[in-house]
Amino acid sequence: MGKTIRLTMAQAVAHFLKAQMTVVDGKTVPIFAGVWGIFGHGNVAGMGEALYQVREDLPTLRAHNEQGMAHAAVAFAKASFRQRFMACTTSIGPGALNMITAAGVAHVNRLPVLFLPGDVFANRIPDPVLQQIENFGDGTVSVNDAFRCVSRYFDRITRPEQIIPALKRTMQVLTDPVDCGPVTLSLCQDVQAEAYDYPASLFEEKVWTQRRPRPDTDELAAAIATLRKAEKPLIIAGGGVLYSQATAELKAFAGMHGIPVAVTQAGKSALPDDHPLCMGSVGVTGTSAANAFAEEADVILAVGTRMQDFTTGSWALFKNDGVKMIGLNTVAFDAAKRDSQPLVADAREGLKLLSEALGGWKAPASFTQSAKPRKETWMAAADRATAPTNADLPSDAQVIGAVQRTIGGENSVMVCAAGGLPGELHKLWQAQKPGGYHMEYGFSCMGYEIAGGLGVKLARPEADVVVMVGDGSYMMMNSELSTSIMLGQKLTIVVLDNRGYGCINRLQMGTGGANFNNLLKDSMIEMMPDIDFRAHAESMGAVAVKVSSIADLETAIQQSKGNDRTSVIVIDTDPLITTKEGGHWWDVAVPEVSPRKEVNAAREAYVKARAAQTIG
């Protein structure tokens, strides 16, 4: 029998995590950058003591909200292109359940994060314990079962030796390009404290490297044959291009073969916005240039994208009757969507092999050359939308223009999530470097923004991390603003106050609905609130200012560069103005019957628009 080490189960987890390594830019580094922890009775005695023992090698970071810290962990993994990640530990009950939303974010976006919630007693002697949910028909259920649907791998540890295979399976999932996503190890609180003679080999340093599957010979041949016949090819680049570190290969492929490139929300920054073949965003929030190519394309090479409805215009965007799709993706599920020709492979390897096989083949010159005037037309429209204004209430686009001009350089990372800003940023923000645009739009999670910005800053401390957030999302979650200050991680946060949920109000109006329950003025409230976001941010330790014009906003951003901690700049904006140029129809079901003529008119337009949809 080999050498063993007697540890509690929780200690075994901590020692295992600190021994897992990876290679980034030629340097071996811990694959777990740290553990976010909010302690309670379900983890303070077990995991808390264990993490204290390894604090020099595996830092434990304290947050203010379990959902917020989990968002930060998710954002860290995204900003690290999935090469490194973090763990999160909480007590049982509400502490654990607070992480469910962030688990959903990680699952939808295929991002690695390890959740370590405490659980009830495995021996059940003290039952029911504080915060325990009692299921009258199933004695094995606890609140942590809610993690099952938002975890790539779930395990409940009811004996200390069970952690051995569970930890090994955990690492396989977190590092696998196909299965990558959140892992939940539900740790019964009594078992956390139980000791076991663990094999010493479990704690030996292990280096994890990125697996790069190469394509099947037949699939590759089929993709090459399809591309060679293309007269109007288009590349749609998704987040998988960034996670594969395939940006150089994408740039070379597009240039070599003269194919325009459109980008999804997750794929934006895979090709610099100023590249002549980068047509910008595609789909519902797309540029006029990208969507024009998408509508006429006869072959679409979809690289590292899951083809979400915002990308496909709810599958009404691609209007060429003979269009063929090639799905270059590590995940067969994504590669074969909508009868696509699957090319199951790593994005970097797949693009290299495709380019080698295509040799000197190029798209027709007249087609490639049409990219220039289309892009020029779009950029003129974008410049008009983002130009400074003296209006009492500027638009989101005008605020974006001010931020771009003052802090949108090569060293900046733009962070945002739900609401109207993602649509405007997807169209208008000019990303210059891979990872310079960080948008959570897979789950479209309000409240991700500030916590996500903190995670990005931890992953990229050298970057100017800029968070743009509406008042609605700010009110949902702002606690990690204080955490950023505690940890010395400076963010620049621009709060756009349109006094309600402006984006969904516009959608409500667009579907014929009355203005109701979205903007504060249209809600059933006794008193119109006047929230001082500047004072609130300042009370949490930020350097904060409120500005009243675009010119003042630019001045404030310039001044914030000299601040030694997180800076918050607040500006009032118009809730109704949005960039009309670009974009595409999106399938939002309109009521079939209504006493309101506006809804009936919207329904008629909806039925007509649905006729352009394809059924997969």
Q: Overview of this structure, please?
A:
- By secondary structure, this protein is α/β, with parallel strands linked by helices.
- The chain folds into three domains: 4-208, Rossmann fold; 217-375, 3-Layer(aba) Sandwich (Rossmann fold), CATH 3.40.50.1220; 387-572, Rossmann fold.
- The protein is built from 25 helices and 23 strands.
- The strands form five sheets. It has a six-stranded parallel beta sheet with strand order 5-4-6-7-9-8, sandwiched between helices. The chain has a six-stranded parallel beta sheet with strand order 14-13-12-15-16-17, with helices on both faces.
- Helix 18 (421-428) links the parallel strand 18 (412-416) and strand 19 (437-439).
- Helix 10 (247-257) packs parallel to helix 14 (347-358).
- The model has no long low-confidence stretch (mean pLDDT 97).
- Keywords: Hydrolase, Thiamine pyrophosphate.
- Belongs to the TPP enzyme family.
- It comes from Shinella kummerowiae.
- This is 3D-(3,5/4)-trihydroxycyclohexane-1,2-dione acylhydrolase (Decyclizing).
- GO terms for molecular function: 3D-(3,5/4)-trihydroxycyclohexane-1,2-dione hydrolase activity; acetolactate synthase activity; flavin adenine dinucleotide binding; magnesium ion binding; thiamine pyrophosphate binding.
Write the layout of secondary structure elements.
Layout: E1 4-8, H1 9-19, E2 20-24, E3 27-30, E4 32-37, H2 44-53, E5 60-62, H3 66-79, E6 85-90, H4 94-97, H5 100-108, E7 113-119, E8 153-157, H6 163-175, E9 182-188, H7 189-192, E10 195-199, E11 206-208, H8 217-228, E12 233-237, H9 239-243, H10 247-257, E13 261-263, E14 278-281, H11 288-296, E15 299-303, H12 309-312, E16 324-329, H13 332-335, E17 341-344, H14 347-358, H15 365-369, H16 371-386, H17 396-407, E18 412-416, H18 421-428, E19 437-439, H19 448-459, E20 464-470, H20 471-476, H21 480-486, E21 492-497, H22 502-510, H23 533-539, E22 543-547, H24 550-560, E23 567-572, H25 597-610
Parallel strand pairs: 2-11, 4-5, 4-6, 6-7, 7-9, 8-9, 12-13, 12-15, 13-14, 15-16, 16-17, 18-19, 18-20, 20-21, 21-23, 22-23
Antiparallel strand pairs: 1-10, 2-3
